[in-house]
Amino acid sequence: MLSVESRQGTAGSRSRGAGDPRLHRARARQSGRSRRVIEPRERLRARPGLVLSIIGVGVLAVIALWWSDTLSVHGLGDWLTNAGRILGLLAGYGVVVLVALMARLPPLERGTGTDRLARWHAMGGRYVVSVIVAHATLITWGYAVTAHENVVGETKTLLLSYPDVLMATVAGFLFLGIGLVSARAARRRITYDTWYHLHFYTYLAIALAFSHQFADGASFVSSLKARFVWSLMYASVAALLIWYRVLTPLRSARRHRFHVVALRRESPDVVSVYIGGDHLDELQADPGQFFRWRFLTRGMWWSSHPYSLSAVPRPDVMRITVKDRGDHSGAVSRFRPGTKVIAEGPYGAFTPAKDSRQVLLLAGGVGITPLRAMFATLPGHVTLIYRASSPDDVVFGPELDAIARDRGGTVHYLIGSRAQLGGDPLSAERLLSLVPGLRRYDVYVCGPAGMQDSALAALTAAGVPRGRIHHESFEF
Ligand SMILES: Cc1cc2nc3c(=O)[nH]c(=O)nc-3n(C[C@H](O)[C@H](O)[C@H](O)COP(=O)(O)OP(=O)(O)OC[C@H]3O[C@@H](n4cnc5c(N)ncnc54)[C@H](O)[C@@H]3O)c2cc1C
After folding, report:
1. Whether residue 328 has its Cβ less than 6 Å from ligand 1
2. Sign of torsion over alpha carbons 462, 383, 287, 259
3. Which atom of ligand 1 is nearest to the CA of 324?
4. What pTM was computed for the model?
5. What is the pLDDT of residue 32?
């Protein structure tokens, strides 16, 4: 079955959201308690430009560090060694930046967004691994030329005579392995959990490589000040990591006592989970954001997975909606009410711009989840285009229609394969015919990678400025 269907509503009050009896009971229990009004915090945001500038200043400082203790460079051996030294310093700095990007720092998460941070991390990771390989090659080659030795012999000497170099070499191979596993082609073949846990070897690699920087790095051997500043940089990022990735989620779990309240099947392979807790308004989660959820059941407590809020969060309950894609998402439908949860977040900058006047939400498949929450809250006229390959893949149909009716929005369902729909339903022409004046809209896109890429190209072709297109990928 296929269809192109549109629903339009007249202006009115906002949606009151989905109803579930257990959910209502949870709400009723809460309603008697006095509620503290949470004033929106002044939330610090580190915008992408600022973050890149800070990283760039760091790169300049690293080059200055090399410069400050390099009086002159003579001969091929010296040139090679010094090129290797600069790259080594940059690699040492680069790994710290990579970890800092993933340290879940709230200003970064809010201002730059997890999606973009993850892309930078992946791209930066490729550079850093290449720089590490080039550093090892050039340093060894440079030493070999200076010592009039061949490269193989010099490699043996370095590995056997300098234990720190041996440890750093093991670290280099670990970085290389993690880089290979994270490459797109390999990433798609392994589960989220495997990919996620393999990344923990990064910390081992950083620890193994650390000592060779001070033991053998010319910039540090002679300068206590340089060693101090470098150590401070590593220690600060380690402290932030422990604070935001370990202690903050534990404190939050204690304060909010997250637990599963109820489950509701939305389609054959999609289920909504209602998660209750105390003082959830203090989290100040916005529609469009996501949490990393760690369900404390046997076999699942050790992994947390990202899922977006699929409804406007309430002081006593939040909702996520999960499509069965593998081990974790498939097990979600078997949770029982009462299951304890650690929720880490909210994360993500995929939230509506405050000055949006006309908004188009473009959802593909389960990418509807954050857009469903935004559809219910955005001011002004909102159009939602919901692309799904079959009727079974459509979730929240009645909810979306009710929201459209209540708030005066429009929903277009584009259901079926391209062949069934007579071509690409998300082409620039089709989008313009569904949303006249599209180039003046702010557009929010969420869906599978392929759908996102073609939607972004179509929106650009339809004249929507790049700065008005916001998107989130469900892939890290
Ligand atoms: C910010 C964000 C928000 C998300 N919100 C939702 C949501 O609201 N609802 C929802 O259903 N899903 C959402 N996801 C996706 C969800 O996190 C994954 O589908 C889930 O974690 C997969 O775990 P699994 O163990 O079930 O599947 P796995 O067994 O790990 O994977 C099954 C298959 O999917 C591939 N895969 C799984 N996850 C990814 C990934 N992240 N990147 C690339 N390939 C992957 C694997 O390579 C494998 O082939 C979101 C993801 C992100 C990053």
Report:
1. yes
2. negative
3. 26
4. 0.86
5. 38
